[in-house]
Structure formats: C-alpha cells, structure tokens
Amino acid sequence: MGTNFYIKTPNTDTHHIGKRSAAGLYCWNCDLTLCKEGNNKIHLTGLAAHDKKWYSKCPNCDAKQLKESLSESSSGRELGFNKSEPKRKSEVASCSSFTWATEPKFYINLIKTKKTLITDEYDREYSIKEFADVLEECPIRFYGSIGTDFS
After folding, report:
1. Quick one: which of 33, 45, 50, 145 is 20 to 30 A from 97 by CA?
2. Which of 39, 29, 40 minimizes the C-alpha distance to 65?
3. pLDDT tier at 135, thresholds 50, 70, 90
4. Contact 29, 90 (CB under 8 A)
5. CB 142 within 8 A of CB 102
6. What is the per-residue pLDDT across 34-73, written as a single tens digit (0 to 9) for each?
7. Helices (H) and strands (E) in the chain, counts
8. What pLDDT, in 10s, does the model give residues 9-20?
9. Distance, CA of 100 to CA of 148 (rounded, Å)
C-alpha cells in the first residue's frame, strides 16, 4: 500500500520521484520507529496488537500511542480516508516512509530549471510546498532504490 509521485515536464517526460508508504508507529518526539527490528523491517512486520516485533510505547521516552482514526492516520491516507494536510506529528503516532526513485538533488534541480508538475499516480497535482508537506509526514527515508524502476 502506497502512493507513487512523479515529475511531469512540458514535453511529457515523466520521472518517478518515489513512493510514500504507511510505515507503522513512530515516536515523533524521539525520531524513532517502534519496530523493534528498525527502519529496514517496517514494511516486513505486521502491526497486529499481538505482534511482538513492535514496541507498545516508545522505548526511549515511554510515550504511548495516540489514538488515531483512519481520517488521521498514515495508513488512512494511503487508503483515501485521511484528507487532512500532511504534517509532522508529535508523540507516538503513525508515520509514512518515502522510498526515493530519483536522487533528491535531481528532482529539486528539475523543478527549478523547467516548468514541471508534481503529480501522484492518481493524477492529483502538488505544488512544491505541498510535496514538501507530503515529505514532512515521511520521517523514514530510503535511498537504496534510486535509479531502479519500481512502483
């Protein structure tokens, strides 16, 4: 489950920027995933209450999980229920990750030098600021897929 983002240029070239995905519980105070196996395992472990691979509270500051509905959570955003502006949260709450397909410098330079449009796979358009807001909700970033074709 996730959303792909693209840069479209006037000559209709499309560049895959990357993919946002729901990434489980995160302590926004400590900048720490609650996945016991770390960031690299967040998409490989279940979030069920009985799942022993996730902490029930922050192991660093003891903050407990805030209650989030689908209209507030990162997974709700991927399912289309969360229509609020993406933002950095506080305490323990859901988060998203962002897997870069394009070197961040490349996408920044492309936006600065050409008339471009940022879109997602559902053809929703984003300003540069709106896309920066999307990234605010993605404290976990992956750079290992830069230059590869994925969706």
Report:
1. 50
2. 29
3. very high
4. yes
5. no
6. 999 899 888 875 555 446 788 989 999 999 988 999 989 8
7. 3, 7
8. 777 678 899 999
9. 10
Q: Please check whether residue 31 is in contact with residue 139, taking contact to mean a CB–CB distance below 8 angstroms.
A: yes
Q: Return d(Cα 96, Cα 75) in angstroms, integer.
A: 8
CA 119, 18, 3, 24 torsion-angle sign: negative
Question: Would you kindly state where each structural domain of the chain is located, as residue ranges?
Answer: 3-142
For the entire predicted model, the pTM comes to 0.86
Q: Hunting for tokens 């840069």 — which residue is that?
A: 7
Stretch 104-125: mean pLDDT:
78
Cβ neighbours, 10 Å, residue 75: 19
- The predicted-structure confidence for 87-105, as pLDDT tens digits, reads as follows 888 899 999 999 999 888 8
CA distances from 105 to 17, 112, 115, 146 (A): 11, 11, 16, 11
In 3D, which of 81, 51, 55 has the Cα closest to residue 68?
A: 81
DSSP 75-98: HHHHHT---SPP----SEEEEEEE
55: which 2 tokens?
A: 């902490």
